[in-house]
Amino acid sequence: MGPIDIMIVVVYMLVLVYMGYRLGKGNKTQEDFFIGGRTVATIPIALSIAATTLSANGFIGGPGYSYTNGLNAFMLNFSIPLVLVVTLVVFLPFYYNLKVTSIYEYIEMRLGSKSRLLIVLGFLVSNVIQIGSFIFIPSLIIQTFTGWSLILIVPIVVAVSILYTLLGGLKAVIWTDAIQMVVLFGGLFLIFIIVIMKLDIGFFEGINVAKDAGKFKPLDFSFDLQLENGFWAALIGGSFLWLKYFATDQTQTQRMIAAKSVREVKKSIAISGIVMNTIYFLFIILGVLLYIFYDGKQFENANDVMITFLAENIPIGFLGIVIAAVFAAAMSSIDSVLNSVTTVFVKDIYEKYFTKGKEASLKVSKVFTFIFGLLLIGFTLMAFGDTTASILAIIGSYLSYFSGAMIAMFVLAMFTKKAGDIGVAIGFVLGIALTIFFGKLGIVNWLWNYPVGFLLTTSIGYAASMLINEKHAVNYDEFTFKGQRNKLIAEGRTTDENGVSVLPGTIDKYAYILLGFFAIQTLVLVVLQFI
To answer: Which of 42, 109, 219, 444 can pair with 225 through a Cys bridge, CB separation 3.0 to 4.6 Å?
Structure first.
């Protein structure tokens, strides 16, 4: 990595910090800092959602995954368009109408403080674990090209993210994510061009080679429950995986409720679904091209495929662009988690247990952002040391164990009247414990842990609520899906100023766009399967 490459990366980071400064000048309140004053435009939100989902792990790991598994590697993202239909039809209008900052505030509105605390802890644990890998993997890549120590690289990556997030809040997170998405796509496009130019055989001849090697078999309809990326696991288990991420995780919902209107929310979700799955598919195709390029050469680690290609084939100057793309992919995930974790801590813990309902100031919110950023640096450096990396990997595998329970808590709150705070809390704890037990049996692929956890938590939580029969202190009917619909209809507030329905459960053109994209995506996979 030469001076020109380093200069490109440095200039890129300075631009991000400057954007944070400019975007943060209008921040006066906590709402401005955490949800952009609910004034953020559609395209930046859409690109931000896509950028956060397509982390550096996808940029490097996606091609490596498909190098080994072919187009079947795409199946992990197969269900995203369907999940986003459910998200924009059911969950996001519901949250948006409540005008909450943290979606976990709603859990206490409907159920109570015990359930809210449990789901907040689940959110914090899962995001702390995930963010470590978001930082560590790209940092290893940067170390490969620069020779710098991780003790230097990790603080640099996180510090830049902290700085522009502190300066600009959620607006900076969203707009810098949008820029980073463009940089990411530019880096991907550049690598595509170089791979194709360097192929020793013709492009279509290479495709035939990949087909003969079984790389064009994305769909496997086997009913083997241990099958990785099988059609049924991807459709059912994958749907629950992404539903937790897009509909019940503050990291994604926070930028959605920052939109100007429900119409902007729906447009951003529809656009992001198309963008993220298209680019992820390109990651997968790139891996197949690299398989052709290396003639099926064996690599010790899947991540080594992309790293090796970049190290050996990207010229000076262009390498700086690619490294900037890796930084972009990493920081788009770091800033989002940093902002959302701070939001949840301030709204769901600090204001509830320390200020007793009094809203924290903008200064306090920024202080917590800074503190969490520093903790993030320390956690990443310690957790991925030689003595604890394997421990973290084991903990990471447990993420699938409690995600189903988190979805179940929202479903019980929104779609039942019988669910109560104590009953759902019992269901949440027992659901996670039983899912861990089930997962440890090793009889199914890990994706099935999501629907299993959901079903266990839902059934136990509902049954426990029926047995305990808690008395609700407030009229909670308006905090259910049906209740909110009825209230909006009774008040004549069924559409926003743009004429778009704000009623949860309304299927409109944005849902149909995603359904159409899902149909096209499926058709492409079928064609590739049988050509």
So the answer is: 444
